[in-house]
Structures are given as C-alpha cells and as structure tokens.
Amino acid sequence: MKRSIDPDILQLDEANTPKLRGCRCDGCGTVFHPARPVCLACHGRALHEVSLSGAGSLYAFTHVAMPLRPGTRTAREYWVAQVDLDDGPRVQGLLAAEITEPRIGMRLRLGLETVRVAENGDEIAVHHFARTEAVS
Q1: Angle value at C-alpha 107, between 102 and 112, nearest 5 degrees
Q2: Is 39 within 8 Å of 24 (Cβ atoms)?
Q3: pTM
Q4: Domain carrying residue 116
Q5: Total structural domains in the chain?
Q6: Under 8 Å CB-to-CB from 77, ≥6 apart: which residues?
Q7: From CA 29, how far away is CA 42, in angstroms rounded?
C-alpha cells in the first residue's frame, strides 16, 4: 500500500491515484495549494477544499546538484519546477527522474515517487511531475 508523506498536501485514493489538496475561495474563486484559511486575493475566510488534478505546464525549473534526501535517489542531482496547473494555481514540486532536459511549456502530470518503505511495508510517497507528451 502507498501512503502520502503529507496527507495535507497529497491525497491518494484506493487505486493510488494522486491528487493535490487545495482550496477555492467562495468570494473570488482563487484556487490555492496547499489549502489555507484566508484568501490571499480578497482576504475572505470562506474557502472550501478542492482536489487538484496535477495536470499542467512547466513554468520554470532549476537544477539542484545536491542530494534530495539521504537514500531517496541514486543520482545526486534533480530538478525542481514550478508548474502552472490547469486547475488554477502555480505549484512547486520535483520533476520525475526520467526528465533530463526540461522545457518551458512542456505538459506535465502528477505522479508518485516512493521515498522510503515503512516497517509495515507501506510505501511512503511524495508527488512529482512527469512528462505527458512523447519524447521527440
């Protein structure tokens, strides 16, 4: 069984389909991730929880040449990205390890990466963004 490392940010259903947790302001419609108690756009306090699909376009990225976490990947380097979600907000996350040459505007989808295995055998997962388009 897979479990989210942080259920307040990432939720998994019975089929391990990842969804980012967020909220939408009832006053102005602005969507946030992660969820928050006050709208940054209109300062309203009437927000309700929404699940974000995680599909979007790469807005920006940077290459990091240091370990992410001890023992999580064999490579010592990785990419961190900002992704404009189709659902609204711009979010930050890792790019999947197979993405070696990111391009601004490339289409991405939400995926999972196991960071460790718990004593009971559950896989503890974080979200990442994987390629949705064919490699050309």
Answers
A1: 80
A2: no
A3: 0.84
A4: 2-131
A5: 1
A6: 63, 64, 65, 66
A7: 10
